[in-house]
Structures are given as C-alpha cells and as structure tokens.
From TrEMBL:
SUPFAM superfamilies: Dihydrofolate reductase-like
Organism: Catenulispora acidiphila (strain DSM 44928 / JCM 14897 / NBRC 102108 / NRRL B-24433 / ID139908)
One Gene Ontology biological process: riboflavin biosynthetic process
Highest taxon listed in the record's lineage: Bacteria
Protein name, entry field: Bifunctional deaminase-reductase domain protein
Amino acid sequence: MRTLIVSSLVTADGIHGDPQLWAGEYSDEEAVEQWLGALKKSDAFLMGKNTYELFVQMWGTPEGPYLERLHEMPKYVYSSTLTSADWANTTIVSGDAVAAVRELKEQGDGDLMVYGYGRLSQALLEAGLVDRLDFTVNPVVFGSGTPLFRPGKRVNLRLDSVSRRGNGAVALSYVPA
C-alpha cells in the first residue's frame, strides 16, 4: 500500500495560506534539495483545485530538476468544478475525493505527495488516510492569512522527526498516534 504524505509550509504564527507572499526567502537550495528528494520517492502528486491553479500559474514551465520532476510525475486534482487541466500528466478527479484517494493508495507501494493543508488534506487526515504530516515552520510571523488548521475532527499525532535548516526553518514530521 502506498504511503500518503502531506507536506506544508507554515509560518511561526501558524499561517499556511499564500506562501508565495512569505516563503520565498526560506526556499533556498537546502529546502529545494529536500523537496526534490521527497518528490523523487513519490509516485504521484495529489492536490485540490486551488493548489493546482496556484502551481500552474507559478510553475507552468519546468526549470531545473525540482520543477522537471514535478512536471513529469502523475498529478491528480480533486475538484467538483474544474473541467480541464493544462498541466502535463494531470488527471482531474471529481466525486468523492476520500474514496478516490483510498483506492489510489491501494494501487501500489510508493509515496503519494500532497502539498499544502487545505480542505483535501484535512479530509484525508480525518478519514485516516494520511500516513505522515511534514510541516516546515518558517521563521516569520506573517500576521494574517489562512491558518494551518480549521475546525474539524481531532486527530492525535506523534512527533516522528525534527530537523533544522541553516536558514532557521524547522522541519517537523508527524505520524498519526
């Protein structure tokens, strides 16, 4: 069975929305190397409509190994409103995202990667499908924006690993307890 990993950037004050406004200075070579390593282990990339639209706008053209990997890998967009996808190797999945991801997890043994912690990630975590949560806490207080967690079902976690980057960001990995 595949391992489902949710990876999200977050500020020190718990904001994850609009990372293009605050994460750039912390997305250094060390960070990109770490992200590329995770993508190389992943069989597919999963996202909701909002993440898809942001990524196509920001990363529509592959430049460098990280974006080349992201472009070449299979991508699944879970949306009830999106009707077409212009990004290479992208499949739109409508309907019950939780059931579709459950089925996708059973189809192999590699990693499935989700970036961000939006409605899709929260639904997958609450359904017990997430095997690991990776949060990179960036050393900035942004002051406003979309908080990482919204009201929902309680899920107990266990800290699996901690690492510190030279730029002050801290990577935290949690697994369901």
